[in-house]
């Protein structure tokens, strides 16, 4: 299977989007910016909603997934 096949969109979500989300979480969890995650940092990466410094990122990701017109806000129509 080639890279383009792996990155195609399925059910509205592309593997590239998932990779980008995980990369953003990785760098947010990496508190000492060494590119590697300690046990504590990896826990934060896996459970961002349970980690105070990553909670805002979870909210931002949720807004981005609902915000169809990409205006940075969620309308009732977008939410429903």
UniProtKB/TrEMBL annotation:
Domain (EF-hand) ranges: 54-80
PROSITE patterns membership: EF_HAND_1 (PS00018), EF_HAND_2 (PS50222)
Coiled coil stretches, renumbered: none
InterPro entries: EF-hand-dom_pair, EF_Hand_1_Ca_BS, EF_hand_dom
Cellular component aspect of the GO annotation: endoplasmic reticulum
Keywords: Calcium
Molecular function via GO: calcium ion binding
Protein name: EF-hand domain-containing protein
Species of origin: Nesidiocoris tenuis
């Amino acid at each position: 299977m080639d890279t383009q096949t792996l990155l195609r969109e399925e059910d509205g979500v592309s593997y590239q989007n998932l990779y980008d989300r995980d990369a953003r979480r990785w760098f947010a969890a990496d508190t000492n910016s060494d590119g590697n995650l300690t046990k504590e940092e990896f826990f934060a990466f896996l459970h961002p909603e349970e980690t105070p410094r990553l909670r805002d990122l979870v909210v931002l990701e949720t807004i981005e997934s609902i915000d169809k017109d990409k205006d940075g806000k969620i309308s009732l129509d977008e939410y429903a």
